[in-house]
Task: structure prediction
Amino acid sequence: MRRLVFAALAALPAACSAPDYTPVRDWARTASLAADFPAGRLPPPVSEDVREGALAMREALATYLAALGRMADDGVLPYPENPFVELAPQAGRAGTGGEQPVAALGAVLRRATRQNWRAPQLRGAIGETDPSVQALVQALTAAIGRNADPNEPPAIATARAQYSAIIVRIGEDHALLRARASDITDEDVVELVRAAEDRLRRAMLALPRPSIPAAGPAP
Result:
């Protein structure tokens, strides 16, 4: 019994000094919700392929961000196989270069699950995935713009523009996490991440909620 007490006491300093990634977790969860926001489900006035490709990229981005939040919370990831095997070719349908970054992110999630990446591996994971995240953000925003109809209703045009701006912001915030990964728990960086999460949450809440059909006939 005494040995167990001593062992528990010896472990206390390490537990107390463990990095707190709560701000990163909160940002990632908010970013995942924002990426998955219904404003991303726009009717296909121009191309069914572009719309379906954009939806696949949207799903991949939201899933990756949710996984990042889970890792920041020291949780175990549930992807023993690449979760984006089917999404990657679907993302390619948009013709904006989304297939490769979606496949790359899926491969990382598979490896992270099999190697049991958790909070201690968070910084490395952010650094490894950022190029793919940036490529995916670029491909998704290009698809959103490509599928716009100049004559679409103002409510839909507004939703499209604001949703696209949120995706760009997610990319910028993720780049910040990568740039400051080495000191991500320092007080000044924590404040930056919290401010980024607050801006993202406000932008998401400001999105209009028009009655947008989930699908429609392609011309």
